[in-house]
Amino acid sequence: MAYRFNKEVFNKIIEKLSKDFKVYAPIVLKGKGTFSDTDSIKYGEITNIEEIEFKEKSNFSYKEILISITQTLFYFTEDQWIEPKEEKKGAIVFLRSCDMHSVKRIDDIYLRNGFEDSYYKKIREKVIFILIGCEHSFDNCFCVSMGTNKSENHDGYIKIFNNDIYFNMLNGKLTQYFNDEHLEEVYFKEDYVKENHNKVNIPEKLDLRIINSSVWKEYSSRCIACGRCNFVCPTCTCFTMQDIFYKGNKNSGERRRVWASCQVDGYTEMAGGHSFRKDKGERMRFKVLHKVYDYKKRWGYHMCVGCGRCDDVCPEYISFSHCINKLESAIKEENK
């Protein structure tokens, strides 16, 4: 059912929702950008509709709501261990279509990849997703090429038009929070991007000779292995483990799961100092082929959702979409 509200009424609904959920949306952090006079758009907890940034793309994805940057898995002592207390509240997340598609990719890794991660599952089961439509394409987006410009798996849809809130409720779980309000039923279409300035062409078949292509050498000199592209990406899920021992008692502490990056030094390092991908060009090759080749062989669709955040954040102006577009010509070059 689709309804129209004024902002005051919708804020009352958010207040009701906040009793049972933490409500997250992209918000503007003043002065928190790359430079002191620039802002950053990041996901944070909100209390009213005015806090949500509808007009610009967020610099970071929503994924740290599902998989924390640092997550304590359990506490331990000499002879026992205990898991942290479970968060009682669920979460409501306002996000765009590309990010909605990335939820499916994260679910693949944590729930359908041969095992179910119990820590992730507990959080995931309590999350409701509200889609924010895109009236136009943003810089560096290529969601149309990746088929992620439209979504059908969200629990609700929201848009603002002439200072009114239009909300399409697709999940019965939310009905109780709207019952006390006078509901004006309306009809409206969801906004979605039909064309991006950036387009990518992914070859149907990748010749394995692409592995030794000279196309990767460029990134050996350009990439600085900072890992920013992985951390802003909504589908990167790699992590490492850390055991933290307390100073007061060296036999007690906690085990943490911490985000990791396939682009940084030490990611593939093994006992004896051996590393699979020491060269930064090799790391770039791994990331690109995983996003648009390996993952599709496993799941039937690409891992990359075309949000373009990796291009936005790279301090060396490396374009992931341009790299993808080099694959076809690189294959032809290798086949000569």
From TrEMBL:
PROSITE patterns: 4FE4S_FER_1 (PS00198), 4FE4S_FER_2 (PS51379). Signal peptide: none annotated. Transmembrane segments: none annotated. Keywords: Iron, Iron-sulfur, Metal-binding. The keyword Membrane does not apply. Residues 213-244, 295-323 form the 4Fe-4S ferredoxin-type domain. InterPro entries: 4Fe4S_Fe-S-bd, 4Fe4S_Fe_S_CS, Helical_ferredxn, Sulphite_reductase_A. GO terms for molecular function: iron-sulfur cluster binding; metal ion binding. It holds the Pfam family Fer4_22. It comes from the Bacteria. PANTHER family: ANAEROBIC SULFITE REDUCTASE SUBUNIT A (PTHR40447). NCBIfam families: sulfite_red_A (TIGR02910). This is Anaerobic sulfite reductase subunit A. It comes from Clostridium frigidicarnis.
